[in-house]
Amino acid sequence: MASIDDIAQMKTATLTVMATRGQDQELVAQAASRYAPAQDFDDQRARVIPCFGWHPWFSHQIIDDVTSEIRNNTTISKEEHYQNVLTPAIKDETLLHALPEPFPLSRLISETKARLQQYPNALVGEVGLDRSFRIPNAWFPHEIENRDQGLTPGSREGRSLSPHRVKLPHQKAILKAQLQLAGEMQRPVSVHSVQAHGAVFDLLQELWSGYERKGVSNRQRKRRPSVAKAHEDSDHEQSEDKKDSTTPTSHPFPPRICMHSYSGPPDALKQFLQRSNPADIYFSFSNVINFTNDSSAKVVEVIKTLPDDRILVESDLHCAGERMDDLMEAIVRQVCTIRGWDLEKGTRTLGDNWNRFVFG
Question: pTM, whole model, 2 decimals?
C-alpha cells in the first residue's frame, strides 16, 4: 500500500491489481475507487482494474461450507478443518494455534460477488491451483519484531516453510466456486497454476461440458483477424436462427481466462487452445517468474508457439512505481524479440490482447 501513490506517475497506462487473501480484498477496492470511482468504471481509461479472488496459497484458510466439509448444519472446529485440508496432519500445536479462524466459502463468494457488482469491469483473481506450495511456519518473536510494517499482513514475509501442503481436492473446491462466480458474472479470470496445468484444464473442461463450440473452419479462421474473432463470428452464425429466443448471459465458466506467468510445457497448449473450448484462454509472461531460471528455453518455445492474439504480459510485482514500469518494458521487449515483432507492432498487439481479455 505504500506504493499506491506512485501509480499516477507510472508509464504503464492501467494496472490489473490482484487480491489474493482476506487482508487485501478491500484494499484493492480502495485503490480502484481512488483512481476510478465505481460509478465511472465503464471508462476503459481507468488507471486501476481491481481483481478479487482467493489465491491457492491461502485456500486452507477457507472452510468449504458449500460442498463437502459442512453438511446438515453440522459445524467443525478450526483444528478439525485444518487437519482435514492439510497434508501431512499437523502435529505442531504452535502452528495449529497460529492459523487463523477459517473463513466460510459461502461468505467469500457473497462478498466477492458484491465487489464485482460494484466494479462492472473487475476481474476474478488471483485464483488457481498449486501443488508445490507449503504453508509458512508460525511467527517467531524476533520475526514479528522485525516485520516490515509497510507490507499488507497475511503473506509469508520471509518465514520458513512448514512441511504442510493444501490438499488438491480442497484447492479445487475453492477454485471451482470462484470460476463459477466468474461465469455467473461473465468476468475474466487470472489463474495461478504451479505443477497443476492438467488439473486446471480438467476443472475447466468439467465446467464447460455441454457448452463446447462447434468447429471453426480453416476458411473462417483465415477470414478473421484473430482466433477469438473467428470463434465469436462462428458462435453468432450458429445462433442466427435463434435471435428471438432468450439466451442466458451467464454460464458455469468464465468467458476469458489468463494463465498467469505461464510455466507449463508447450505440449499443454494444445488442450487450452482447442477450437471447441467455449472460453478464450490467454497466457501471460513476466520476467520475474518466466525468465529467471533454467526454464527460460521452455518459455521461449511456448511464446513462439502461441497465436499472436493469446499473449499477455505482466510485471507480477507487489509494488507500483518505476521498478514495475521497468519490468513491464523488459517483458514487452523480450516478447517482441522472441516473436520477431518490432516494438510498434508488439506494443499494439499486446495492448489489443489486454483490452480484449479484460473488456471482451
Answer: 0.89
